[in-house]
Amino acid sequence: MAETVPAPATQEMAQEAVETETESERLNAWFEEKFQDAAARSPMMQTYLGIKTDYGKWDDITDARAIEDLEIQRQNIAEMKDNFDFDKLDDQAQLSWRLAEYELARAEAAFPYRHYGYTFNQMFGAQSGIPAFLVNQHRVASLSDAEAYISRLEGVSEYLGQSVENAKYSVSQGIQPPAFVYPYVLSDSQGVITGYPFTSDISDGSEDSPLMEDFRGKLQAMLDKGDIDAETASDLLDRAAIALKTSVGPAYENAIAVLTEQAKTATTDDGAWKFPDGEDYYAMRLKQVTTTDKSAAEIHQLGLDEVARIQDEMRGIMQQVGFEGSLQDFFEFMRTDEQFYLPNTEEGRAEYLSEATEIIDGMKADLPSVFKTFPKADMIVKAVEPFREKSAGKAFYSRPAPDGSRPGIYYANLYRMQDMPTYQMQALAFHEGIPGHHMQIAIAQELDGIPSFRKFGGYTAFTEGWGLYSELLPKEMGYYSDPYDDFGRLAMEIWRAARLVVDTGIHDKKWTREQAIQYLMDNTPNPEGDARKAIERYIVMPGQATAYKIGMLKIVELREHAKAELGDQFDIREFHDVVLKDGAVPLQILEENVDEWIDEKKDA
């Protein structure tokens, strides 16, 4: 029989509930206001969010703006503490408060090293970031959108100019990319200004430069719909050509001149250890990306242990397929046997995209067996565009627009088909698409009742840990029935384990680029081109690659802990809801959430 609560206590509890709801609503509204303020300061962020205010502008990336942004963040947290009562907030609002404080602490820790990132690099440098942004983010659905595109072309001169100044300052402080980076960024830069109207007078579209080709294609789509007439389109194309020649061309030529000069003094020292305070910088990077306090030495050893464990599983697959020889022999077989590679032709690329799409569609149908919550946003599979495929990573995901105007995109880099073995196709599609990044990121964007800064923020260990976990989960669902596909899953897992070894090797133990490449060649089945491109990525993004395995191991650890604690009460669908219900969070908070769920299930 339930105990009767006295009326005064009932009234008091009701009043407390109202106060909690009111205080939480106030705080959420305040967070939303601050998020919109931040978006208003960033035209590019607005575009990513599908907002077309300031559609023709670029961000201010000067150091003065960086200083100003941090001061605003400090003031915001002080204002939050002055105007809201933490104890009167509901659980979600309290979590938002804690994450806002956490974000400021991260910003403060990173601020002294704000010039340490390489402004021009082969992964996300300004030289390729500008065309990638215009091609993939700047949608043209109206005349004003087309005008804004031209305005952005006209603004490239200032925006890329700021990037050049930032790079020059970094070099003056002893922060310079290693020598191998320069040929990539110079090639990227030259590619942007090759073709009409830069190096060709042919204006019929047959020899367009990348941005001219993109703009022409977007105008053609409007023409086809009848949204503009041919005369208007012709005028816009002429104006774009002028902007390209007077703004984009000179800006890139200046960048090329500066980078060519810098290349003369670049060295082959690859690790962050070479920077002033390099050891402290790398420790900060590891803490930021893993959201843990693990040291470089601990991460290095964890990687060695995981590599050894996964290699044992690989030997089991060797026996399963009847391969005779060493593990190294098997790696060489997987790298070179033609059965695992589609032709390096347009037909081969089309087949890869078609098969990857089929894999995604098949998983969509099976999701209800392991998930209760599903994203509303759709996703598609695309090849990385030609203008950046030479230097871009193997695969990556681009989030959908919140308003539904742009789907999530899984990009596969098909520049060299020998770097995209078919036995890894399933695991790669699961990681980048479903149930990986698209599930996690799209669901986070669509959550109700949490502030936008949480929907669109992220923690690499959580996001990439989920992506890697999403390669394992299908194994447990019955996928990878072909042992070679299962080997592909293990190949991708050992790749992430080896990252722990090589990232810390490069940036803490002073390994050379070639030494790190050789480690991957000796311990993973990936082809040499894959290994080389990966090490070059880890060099320009210190610490980032360590997040995947550390995040995945934590998710698996928490799942197994929940299974052990709950027994028959454990529901994998509920567990996944608990992991994804708050958006991306630091790993410690994820652990708290799972422990709380376990306690609630036990008490139910």
Overview of this protein structure:
The protein has 604 residues and is mostly helical. The chain has 3 domains: 17-113; 126-267, no CATH class; 278-555, no CATH class. Helices cover 65% and strands 2% of the residues. It is built from 24 helices and 3 strands. The protein has helices at residues 7-40, 43-48, 63-83, 91-110, 126-136, 143-172, 181-192, 210-225, 230-263, 278-290, 296-320, 327-336, 346-366, 386-389, 425-432, 437-446, 452-455, 460-477, 483-507, 513-523, 528-540, 547-566, 572-580, 587-603, and strands at residues 379-383, 395-398, 408-412. It has a 3-stranded mixed sheet with strand order 1-3-2. Helix 6 (143-172) packs parallel to helix 9 (230-263), helix 18 (460-477) packs across helix 22 and helix 19 runs antiparallel to helix 20 (513-523). It is globular. InterPro entries: DUF885. It holds the Pfam family DUF885. This is Lipoprotein.
